[in-house]
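lol ok so funny story. i was supposed to be doing the assay writeup but got distracted and ended up predicting the structure for this chain instead. priorities right. anyway since i did it might as well share w the group, maybe its usefull for someone
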Amino acid sequence: MDFNFATEVRVRFAETDAQGIAHNSAYLVWFEIEALTIESHVRYLAPARFDDRLTIRCACGDLRGARFRFDYAIDRDGEPVADGWTRHACVDASTHRPTRVPAWLVEAIVSSEG
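and the output, tada:
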């Protein structure tokens, strides 16, 4: 998969257990999407440890009606650490019923994913 977006994070002490290994819940925080999440999946490939510098790559697609999906790959110096995806839905703020992804968001996704 081609990823057009990447950002870096450093594993914080609060995200680790007594052995200094990142807790599984931290990965979903690193995916960090500000949209209504309806489903998520993480595949853990190697442990991330305290103070590791990780690169998180993201791509958006599978845009249909009210739903869209983000795919992720996390690596440490080129070594795969985890991958996964999240599925999201747009809803009306007052009724919480599904509504089509707004045109401005569709345009932004299409232009950034080229």
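The mean pLDDT is 94. The longest strand covers residues 53-64.
back to the writeup now i swear
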